[in-house]
Amino acid sequence: MKRIGVLTSGGDAPGMNAAIRAVVRTALCSGMSVVGIEHGYQGILDRHFREMQMRSVSDIVQRGGTILRTARCMDFHKPECQDAAIANMRAEGIEGLIVIGGDGSFRGAKALSDKGFPTVGIPGTIDNDLAYTDYTIGFHTACNTCLEAIDRIRDTSSSHDRITIVEVMGRHCGDIALYTGIAGGAELIIIPEVPLTFSEIKKSLIEASQKGKTSGIVLLAEGVCGADELMRFLQRETNLSVRATVLGHQQRGGSPSMRDRLLGTQFGYYAVGLLKKDIGNRVIGISKERVVDYDISEALAMPYKFKKDLYRMAGVVSQ
Ligand code: ADP
Ligand code: F6P
Question: Is the torsion defined by CA of 105, 110, 116, 121 positive or negative?
Answer without folding.
Answer: positive
